[in-house]
Structures are given as structure tokens and as C-alpha cells.
Amino acid sequence: MIRDKSHMEQVQRWAEFVKNNSRDKWKPAVNDLINSQYEIAARFYKNLEKTEKGREILERLKNERTKVKKNL
């Protein structure tokens, strides 16, 4: 995926912020971001369960994950 210049500038600003500040200052922002991603995923799967087609998809995903675990 191609990102624009402003994206790379933001990445560089964040890297500088992390480099120049203690973990106590930047870690809460990272935790908030990660937690929000989990919440979005949970909401997505909950909505997917509401339809027959969605339940079929979830069942296929579950079966695929089980196959991967057995092969590890």
C-alpha cells in the first residue's frame, strides 16, 4: 500500500516523541489505540453473529484457526 507524505511525516513525529519521552508519557496513548481496536473487532464479530451468513463465516474462521493450531 502506498502512503502519502503526510503519513510518513506523522510516523516520524511519533518516533521522535517515543524516543524523546518516557514510556509513562506515550504508553497510555498506545494502550488506548490497541483497546479501541479490540472494541471495534468485538463489535464487528457481534454484528456478524446476527445473520445466518455471518454465523457461517465465523464457523469457517473457527475451523481454519483450529487447523492452524493443530499444525503448529
Describe this structure in words.
This protein has 72 residues and is mostly helical. The chain is 86% helix and 0% strand. The longest helix is centred in the middle third of the chain and has 26 residues, at 23-48.
Given helix and strand content, the structural type is mainly alpha
SSE pattern, N- to C-terminal: HHH
Percent of residues in helices comes to over 70%
Described by strand count, sense and barrel closure, the largest sheet is:
none
Low-pLDDT stretches are none
N/C terminus separation: 30 Å
Q: If you average the pLDDT, what whole number results?
A: 92
- C-alpha geometry: elongated
Features:
single chain; 72 residues; mainly alpha; 3 helices; 86% helix; 0% strand
Q: What is shown here, in short?
A:
This protein has three helices and no strands. It is mainly α.
Secondary structure elements and their pairing?
Layout: H1 5-20, H2 23-48, H3 52-71
